[in-house]
Amino acid sequence: MGTITEPRRRYPLPIESITKRNLQFPPVKAMLLLSQCAQCKTHQGNLDGLPKVRLERELLSALASPVHGGIGHDGGYMSFSIYDITVPVMLHGLVVMDDYLLHAQNLERSNSLDPGSVLTSRLAPDMLTFGEQFVVNCNKVELHMTKLMNRNQAAPPNVAMIYPALQGRLLETRSFLRTIQPEDLANAQSHIYQLAPSVAKDWIGGDDYIRHVVLADFFFHIAVAHAILRHLGAPAGKKDYLGHLTPHGGGDYF
Protein backbone atom coordinates (compact mmCIF):
# COMPACT_ATOMS: atom_id res chain seq x y z
CA MET A 1 0.00 0.00 0.00
CA GLY A 2 1.24 3.50 -0.79
CA THR A 3 2.13 5.87 2.00
CA ILE A 4 1.04 9.42 2.59
CA THR A 5 4.46 10.67 1.53
CA GLU A 6 4.08 9.39 -2.03
CA PRO A 7 2.15 12.13 -3.88
CA ARG A 8 1.04 9.91 -6.77
CA ARG A 9 -0.67 7.34 -4.53
CA ARG A 10 -4.29 7.47 -3.51
CA TYR A 11 -5.74 8.49 -0.14
CA PRO A 12 -6.69 7.81 2.55
CA LEU A 13 -4.58 5.61 4.76
CA PRO A 14 -6.48 3.27 7.06
CA ILE A 15 -7.11 4.99 10.38
CA GLU A 16 -5.12 2.35 12.23
CA SER A 17 -2.02 3.12 10.13
CA ILE A 18 -1.86 6.79 11.11
CA THR A 19 1.41 7.51 12.85
CA LYS A 20 2.99 10.55 14.46
CA ARG A 21 5.19 10.87 11.36
CA ASN A 22 2.38 11.34 8.87
CA LEU A 23 -0.05 13.13 11.19
CA GLN A 24 1.47 16.41 9.97
CA PHE A 25 -0.36 16.05 6.63
CA PRO A 26 -3.76 17.83 6.56
CA PRO A 27 -5.70 14.92 4.97
CA VAL A 28 -4.42 12.50 7.59
CA LYS A 29 -5.20 14.85 10.47
CA ALA A 30 -8.66 15.43 9.06
CA MET A 31 -9.23 11.68 8.71
CA LEU A 32 -8.29 11.13 12.32
CA LEU A 33 -10.70 13.79 13.50
CA LEU A 34 -13.49 12.39 11.38
CA SER A 35 -12.87 8.92 12.77
CA GLN A 36 -13.45 10.21 16.29
CA CYS A 37 -17.02 11.17 15.47
CA ALA A 38 -19.56 8.39 14.95
CA GLN A 39 -21.59 10.60 12.61
CA CYS A 40 -18.56 11.05 10.37
CA LYS A 41 -17.49 7.43 9.97
CA THR A 42 -19.98 6.77 7.20
CA HIS A 43 -18.80 9.83 5.30
CA GLN A 44 -15.15 8.85 5.74
CA GLY A 45 -15.86 5.38 4.38
CA ASN A 46 -17.06 6.88 1.09
CA LEU A 47 -13.75 8.65 0.46
CA ASP A 48 -11.48 5.67 -0.15
CA GLY A 49 -9.47 5.97 -3.35
CA LEU A 50 -10.05 9.66 -4.03
CA PRO A 51 -7.12 11.74 -5.36
CA LYS A 52 -5.37 13.91 -2.78
CA VAL A 53 -6.80 17.28 -3.85
CA ARG A 54 -10.38 15.98 -3.98
CA LEU A 55 -9.95 14.16 -0.68
CA GLU A 56 -8.67 17.22 1.14
CA ARG A 57 -11.62 19.24 -0.11
CA GLU A 58 -14.12 16.56 0.88
CA LEU A 59 -12.63 16.01 4.32
CA LEU A 60 -12.42 19.67 5.21
CA SER A 61 -15.92 20.23 3.89
CA ALA A 62 -17.16 17.38 6.07
CA LEU A 63 -15.53 18.87 9.13
CA ALA A 64 -17.20 22.22 8.50
CA SER A 65 -20.60 20.73 7.76
CA PRO A 66 -23.33 21.05 10.43
CA VAL A 67 -24.08 17.37 9.85
CA HIS A 68 -20.60 16.52 11.05
CA GLY A 69 -20.35 18.88 13.96
CA GLY A 70 -19.67 22.16 12.21
CA ILE A 71 -16.71 24.32 13.13
CA GLY A 72 -16.86 23.13 16.72
CA HIS A 73 -16.29 19.51 15.64
CA ASP A 74 -16.16 16.79 18.28
CA GLY A 75 -12.59 16.10 17.25
CA GLY A 76 -11.61 19.65 18.16
CA TYR A 77 -10.78 20.61 14.58
CA MET A 78 -11.42 24.33 14.87
CA SER A 79 -13.25 26.67 17.20
CA PHE A 80 -12.94 30.44 17.42
CA SER A 81 -14.57 32.64 20.01
CA ILE A 82 -15.29 36.34 19.55
CA TYR A 83 -12.33 36.98 21.82
CA ASP A 84 -10.06 34.83 19.63
CA ILE A 85 -10.82 36.73 16.44
CA THR A 86 -10.64 40.21 17.95
CA VAL A 87 -8.30 40.76 20.90
CA PRO A 88 -5.22 38.75 19.78
CA VAL A 89 -5.70 39.93 16.19
CA MET A 90 -5.81 43.57 17.25
CA LEU A 91 -2.85 43.22 19.58
CA HIS A 92 -0.86 41.80 16.68
CA GLY A 93 -2.00 44.55 14.30
CA LEU A 94 -1.09 47.33 16.71
CA VAL A 95 2.43 45.95 16.97
CA VAL A 96 2.59 46.15 13.17
CA MET A 97 1.52 49.79 13.36
CA ASP A 98 4.21 50.45 15.96
CA ASP A 99 6.76 49.07 13.49
CA TYR A 100 5.37 51.40 10.81
CA LEU A 101 6.24 54.38 13.00
CA LEU A 102 9.83 53.15 13.04
CA HIS A 103 9.74 52.78 9.24
CA ALA A 104 8.51 56.37 8.97
CA GLN A 105 11.29 57.70 11.19
CA ASN A 106 13.91 55.73 9.27
CA LEU A 107 12.53 57.11 6.00
CA GLU A 108 12.84 60.67 7.27
CA ARG A 109 16.43 60.14 8.41
CA SER A 110 17.57 58.33 5.27
CA ASN A 111 16.08 60.99 2.98
CA SER A 112 16.99 64.02 5.12
CA LEU A 113 13.33 64.92 5.53
CA ASP A 114 12.04 67.23 8.23
CA PRO A 115 11.22 65.30 11.43
CA GLY A 116 7.53 64.42 11.44
CA SER A 117 7.00 65.17 7.76
CA VAL A 118 5.81 61.62 7.04
CA LEU A 119 3.11 62.03 9.69
CA THR A 120 1.39 64.70 7.59
CA SER A 121 1.47 62.69 4.33
CA ARG A 122 -1.72 61.24 2.89
CA LEU A 123 -2.77 59.15 -0.12
CA ALA A 124 -5.48 61.54 -1.29
CA PRO A 125 -6.68 65.01 -0.26
CA ASP A 126 -9.84 63.62 1.38
CA MET A 127 -8.06 60.88 3.35
CA LEU A 128 -6.52 60.95 6.82
CA THR A 129 -2.84 61.64 7.20
CA PHE A 130 -0.36 58.93 8.11
CA GLY A 131 -0.32 60.05 11.75
CA GLU A 132 -4.11 60.23 11.94
CA GLN A 133 -4.39 56.59 10.84
CA PHE A 134 -2.84 55.60 14.18
CA VAL A 135 -5.00 57.82 16.35
CA VAL A 136 -8.22 56.87 14.59
CA ASN A 137 -7.46 53.16 14.64
CA CYS A 138 -6.76 53.22 18.37
CA ASN A 139 -9.99 55.14 18.95
CA LYS A 140 -11.91 52.67 16.79
CA VAL A 141 -10.47 49.69 18.66
CA GLU A 142 -11.76 51.09 21.94
CA LEU A 143 -15.10 52.09 20.37
CA HIS A 144 -15.77 48.71 18.79
CA MET A 145 -14.62 46.64 21.74
CA THR A 146 -16.60 48.62 24.31
CA LYS A 147 -19.66 48.20 22.08
CA LEU A 148 -19.10 44.45 21.94
CA MET A 149 -18.82 44.38 25.74
CA ASN A 150 -21.98 46.54 26.03
CA ARG A 151 -20.09 49.23 27.91
CA ASN A 152 -19.72 52.98 27.52
CA GLN A 153 -16.59 54.24 25.83
CA ALA A 154 -14.51 56.82 27.61
CA ALA A 155 -13.77 59.97 25.63
CA PRO A 156 -10.69 59.36 23.47
CA PRO A 157 -7.64 61.38 24.47
CA ASN A 158 -6.13 64.17 22.42
CA VAL A 159 -2.92 62.90 20.87
CA ALA A 160 -0.17 65.15 19.57
CA MET A 161 1.09 64.38 16.07
CA ILE A 162 4.58 63.43 17.19
CA TYR A 163 6.15 59.99 17.23
CA PRO A 164 6.44 59.53 21.02
CA ALA A 165 2.77 60.47 21.51
CA LEU A 166 1.61 58.06 18.79
CA GLN A 167 3.74 55.26 20.21
CA GLY A 168 2.27 55.97 23.63
CA ARG A 169 -1.27 55.81 22.24
CA LEU A 170 -0.57 52.43 20.65
CA LEU A 171 0.82 51.16 23.94
CA GLU A 172 -2.21 52.48 25.82
CA THR A 173 -4.58 50.74 23.41
CA ARG A 174 -2.72 47.45 23.71
CA SER A 175 -2.98 47.74 27.50
CA PHE A 176 -6.73 48.27 27.14
CA LEU A 177 -7.07 45.14 25.00
CA ARG A 178 -5.17 43.08 27.56
CA THR A 179 -7.78 43.92 30.19
CA ILE A 180 -10.50 42.23 28.12
CA GLN A 181 -11.42 38.69 29.13
CA PRO A 182 -13.20 36.12 26.92
CA GLU A 183 -16.29 36.23 29.14
CA ASP A 184 -16.57 39.99 28.54
CA LEU A 185 -17.44 39.22 24.91
CA ALA A 186 -19.62 36.17 25.55
CA ASN A 187 -22.88 37.83 24.44
CA ALA A 188 -21.49 40.06 21.70
CA GLN A 189 -23.00 38.01 18.87
CA SER A 190 -26.52 38.21 20.27
CA HIS A 191 -26.70 42.01 20.11
CA ILE A 192 -27.43 44.37 17.24
CA TYR A 193 -25.26 47.41 16.60
CA GLN A 194 -25.95 50.79 15.06
CA LEU A 195 -23.56 51.74 12.30
CA ALA A 196 -21.96 55.15 12.07
CA PRO A 197 -23.85 57.53 9.73
CA SER A 198 -20.75 57.71 7.54
CA VAL A 199 -21.08 53.97 6.91
CA ALA A 200 -24.84 53.44 6.76
CA LYS A 201 -27.91 54.59 8.66
CA ASP A 202 -28.80 51.12 9.78
CA TRP A 203 -28.44 48.44 12.43
CA ILE A 204 -26.49 45.24 11.97
CA GLY A 205 -26.36 41.88 13.74
CA GLY A 206 -23.46 40.84 15.95
CA ASP A 207 -21.82 38.36 13.58
CA ASP A 208 -21.87 40.76 10.64
CA TYR A 209 -20.75 43.67 12.80
CA ILE A 210 -17.68 41.76 13.95
CA ARG A 211 -16.77 40.27 10.58
CA HIS A 212 -17.59 43.13 8.23
CA VAL A 213 -17.16 46.25 10.35
CA VAL A 214 -14.91 45.72 13.37
CA LEU A 215 -12.18 43.70 11.65
CA ALA A 216 -12.48 45.39 8.26
CA ASP A 217 -12.28 48.84 9.87
CA PHE A 218 -9.22 47.83 11.88
CA PHE A 219 -7.28 46.46 8.92
CA PHE A 220 -8.26 49.37 6.67
CA HIS A 221 -6.21 51.84 8.71
CA ILE A 222 -3.22 49.50 8.86
CA ALA A 223 -3.39 49.00 5.09
CA VAL A 224 -3.60 52.75 4.41
CA ALA A 225 -0.63 53.44 6.70
CA HIS A 226 1.29 50.74 4.81
CA ALA A 227 0.29 52.26 1.46
CA ILE A 228 1.48 55.73 2.50
CA LEU A 229 4.87 54.33 3.51
CA ARG A 230 5.23 52.49 0.19
CA HIS A 231 4.11 55.57 -1.75
CA LEU A 232 6.86 57.57 -0.06
CA GLY A 233 9.47 54.93 -0.85
CA ALA A 234 9.84 53.14 2.48
CA PRO A 235 11.04 49.51 2.17
CA ALA A 236 7.94 48.09 3.85
CA GLY A 237 6.70 44.88 2.24
CA LYS A 238 4.06 42.25 2.84
CA LYS A 239 6.26 40.64 5.48
CA ASP A 240 6.08 43.86 7.48
CA TYR A 241 2.31 44.02 7.03
CA LEU A 242 1.89 40.46 8.29
CA GLY A 243 4.09 41.16 11.29
CA HIS A 244 6.06 38.71 13.36
CA LEU A 245 4.57 35.25 12.83
CA THR A 246 5.39 32.09 14.72
CA PRO A 247 4.38 28.49 13.95
CA HIS A 248 3.73 27.93 17.64
CA GLY A 249 0.67 30.05 18.23
CA GLY A 250 -1.04 27.58 20.55
CA GLY A 251 -3.68 26.43 18.07
CA ASP A 252 -4.34 22.88 16.92
CA TYR A 253 -2.74 23.44 13.53
CA PHE A 254 -1.98 20.82 10.91
TrEMBL record:
The keyword Phosphoprotein does not apply. It comes from the Bacteria. InterPro entries: DinB/YfiT-like, DUF1993. Transmembrane segments: none annotated. The keyword Metal-binding does not apply. It holds the Pfam family DUF1993. Keywords: Plasmid. This is DUF1993 family protein. It comes from Rhizobium jaguaris.
